[in-house]
């Protein structure tokens, strides 16, 4: 049995798949996909869309980071991370979709300014914007972030079900970026409490040196 993760150290979607593998304690190897517009052939042979990450599990090919998280939890029988109960599962899926389809896109202009991200060539492709510009972009999305955080368990700190699930693992890399951005996280208290819990995961702490995101 061998697992290979196609990823890039700065890809937040790659980081969440790698965090999941580490939480599960699985053995795997990584292949670094260059951040180039023309994606390298060995990667598109697995994920025709070229997005990072992709996973190959003994010849079984998979892409889309949230799909990879769901698959790995099921593969390992980890119902604590992704339960079979329809309502519990749907609650997690709601947070996963909310994060990927609403929150991440809202945060992206802030992230792109902070890390000089250019779509197609990745992070550090241009100079980072001045800190006050990053804060301004963040301020603009604060109302939307607070609105989205109302979907989470109000008690927390985990997103839902009163315990760590794949919803938390999925959000951790971007929460790390936000927590280390020159922004006032006090404006989004539920997000700050969530970030504190996620970033304290020992498996995430161990990944930080690899992922090229400066810690403030
Ligand atoms: N929905 C996909 C998104 C994949 C994706 O867009 N990955 C980023 C890296 S985090 C990427 O390949 N970006 C292309 C680029 O920035 O050039 C997933 O969740 O896996």
The CATH level-2 architecture of the largest domain is identified as Up-down Bundle
Termini gap: 39 Å
Largest sheet: 4 strands, mixed
The chain-level structural class is alpha+beta
* General shape: globular
- In helices, the fraction of residues equals 40-55%
* Helix/strand order, N-terminal first: EHEHEEHHHHHH
Radius of gyration: 17 Å
The CATH topology of the largest domain corresponds to Glutathione S-transferase Yfyf (Class Pi), Chain A, domain 2
CATH class of the largest domain: Mainly Alpha
Average predicted confidence as pLDDT: 93
Compute the number of helices: 8
Indicate how many domains the architecture comprises: 2
Q: Name the hetero compounds present.
A: glutathione
Q: How many strand units?
A: 4
What's the arrangement of strands in the largest beta sheet? Answer: 2-1-3-4
- Report low-confidence residues grouped into runs of 5 or more: none
**β-strand amount:** 5-15%
Short key terms for the protein model shown above:
50% helix; Glutathione S-transferase Yfyf (Class Pi), Chain A, domain 2; 216 residues; Glutaredoxin; binds glutathione; alpha+beta; four-stranded mixed beta sheet
Topology:
Elements: E1 3-7, H1 12-24, E2 29-32, H2 41-44, E3 54-57, E4 60-63, H3 65-75, H4 86-115, H5 131-149, H6 166-179, H7 189-199, H8 202-207
Parallel strand pairs: 1-2
Antiparallel strand pairs: 1-3, 3-4
């Amino acid at each position: 049995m061998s697992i290979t993760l196609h990823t890039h150290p700065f890809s937040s979607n790659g980081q969440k798949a790698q965090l999941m593998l580490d939480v599960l304690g699985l053995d795997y190897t990584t292949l670094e996909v260059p951040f180039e517009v023309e994606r390298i052939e060995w990667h598109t042979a697995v994920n025709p869309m070229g997005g990072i990450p992709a996973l190959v599990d003994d010849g079984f090919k998979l892409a889309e980071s949230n799909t990879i998280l769901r698959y790995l939890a099921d593969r390992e029988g980890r119902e604590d991370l992704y339960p079979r109960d329809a309502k519990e599962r749907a609650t997690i899926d709601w947070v996963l979709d909310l994060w990927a389809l609403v929150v991440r896109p809202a945060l992206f202009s802030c992230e792109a300014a902070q890390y000089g991200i250019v779509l197609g060539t990745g992070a550090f492709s241009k100079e980072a914007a001045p800190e006050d510009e990053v804060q301004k972009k963040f301020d603009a999305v604060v109302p939307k972030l607070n609105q989205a955080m109302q979907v989470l368990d109000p008690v927390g700190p985990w997103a839902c079900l009163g315990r760590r699930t794949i919803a938390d693992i999925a959000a951790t890399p971007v929460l790390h970026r936000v927590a280390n951005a020159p922004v006032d996280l006090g404006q989004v208290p539920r997000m700050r409490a969530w970030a504190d819990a996620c970033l304290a995961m020992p498996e995430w702490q161990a990944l930080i040196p690899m992922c090229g995101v400066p810690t403030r």
